[in-house]
Amino acid sequence: MNIHEVRSTYLKFFRERGHAVLASASLIPENDPTTLFTGSGMQPMISYLLGEKHPQGVRLADSQKCFRSQDIEEVGDNRHTTFFEMLGNWSLGDYFKTEQLAWVFGFLTTKIGLDPKNLYVTVFRGNDEIPRDNESVTIWKDVFGKAGVEARDVDFAERDGMQGGRIFYYDEKKNWWSRSGVPSDMPVGEPGGPDSEMFWDFGERRQDHERSEFRDQPCHVNCDCGRFMEIGNSVFMEYKKVETGFEALPQKNVDFGGGLERIAAAASGNPDVLTLSVFGGAKSVLESMGSVTYGTDPASTRSMRVVLDHLRAATFLISDGVLPSNKDQGYFVRRLIRRAVRFGKQLGINGAFASAVGEAFVTEYVSSYGELESKRSTILEELSREEEKFRKTLTKGEREFERLFLEKAKISGEDAFLLYSTYGFPIELTEEMAVERGQVVDRLVFQEEFKKHQELSRAGSEQKFTGGLADHSVATVKLHTATHMLHQALRSVLGQHVEQKGSNITPERLRFDFSHPQKMTPEQLEATENLVNENINKDFPVHFQMLTLEEAKGRGAIGLFEDKYATLGDKIKVYFIGNEATGEYYSKEVCGGPHVERTGLLGHFKILKEEAVAGGVRRIKAILE
Question: What are all long-range contacts of 563-569, with beta carbons under 8 Å and residues at least 24 apart?
Answer without folding.
Answer: 563/23, 563/24, 563/25, 563/26, 563/30, 563/320, 564/25, 564/30, 565/590, 566/22, 566/23, 566/25, 567/22, 567/23, 567/25, 567/44, 568/54, 568/55, 568/56, 569/55, 569/56
